[in-house]
Amino acid sequence: MAETARRQGGGRPLPPPPRGVNQPPRPKPEPVDREKTCPLLLRVFTKSGGHHTQEDYAVRGKEPKDEVQIYTWKDATLRELTDLVKEVSVAARRRNAKLSFAFVYPDSHGRFIVKEVGQTMSYPNRKQPDDSKTLSELRFEIGDYLDVAIY
């Protein structure tokens, strides 16, 4: 494929398409064997009232201070992450709290993008559509941050 791209593109391979743009749906990933697979470190930044801005992540090493580090796997669901955030955030424990999840990752120019990926309720009366979505289904890549807005 790279050779075809080189011939058509004038000698250079084509860059990969941006995340989530014109990509076919992925097949459902196999579940992770959590006994045999090492977890990843997920840096989670919480904020009441809304998401952090791109500017909050602009300088490496000066990320927002309200960070929680979670060891988890790529098959973790937003419901699992909601329960973990509730352990450390009083605002997330409110009965009517809504949590909005966003991935934070660098674009091709090195600027950070904040992309909303799903919402859950702190104590849902019924199953929410995003509860069962996993990090891998949402195209999380190791090294991305997770920004959680608590409303």
Describe this structure in words.
InterPro entries: Hist_deAcase_cplx_SAP18 (IPR017250), SAP18 (IPR010516), SAP18_sf (IPR042534). This is Histone deacetylase complex subunit SAP18. Belongs to the SAP18 family. It comes from Camelina sativa (False flax). Pfam families: SAP18. The chain has 151 residues and is an alpha+beta fold. 12% of the residues lie in helices and 26% in strands. It has 2 helices and 5 strands. It has helices at residues 2-8, 78-88, and strands at residues 40-48, 67-72, 98-106, 112-121, 145-150. The protein has a 5-stranded mixed beta sheet with strand order 2-1-5-3-4, covered by helices on one side. Strand 3 (98-106) and strand 4 form a beta hairpin. It is globular, with a radius of gyration of 18 Å.
Summarize the topology.
Elements (H helix, E strand, L loop, with lengths): L1 H7 L31 E9 L18 E6 L5 H11 L9 E9 L5 E10 L23 E6 L1
Parallel strand pairs: 1-5
Antiparallel strand pairs: 1-2, 3-4, 3-5
Helix content: 10-25%
Biggest β-sheet, characterized? 5 strands, mixed
Number of strands: 5
Q: End-to-end span in angstroms? A: 46 Å
What is the global morphology?
Answer: globular
Q: What is the overall number of helices?
A: 2
Keywords: Repressor, Transcription, Transcription regulation
Family: Belongs to the SAP18 family.
Organism: Camelina sativa (False flax)
Region (Disordered): 1-36
Summarize the structure.
Keywords: Repressor, Transcription, Transcription regulation. Residues 27-36 have a biased composition (Basic and acidic residues). The chain is of the alpha+beta class.
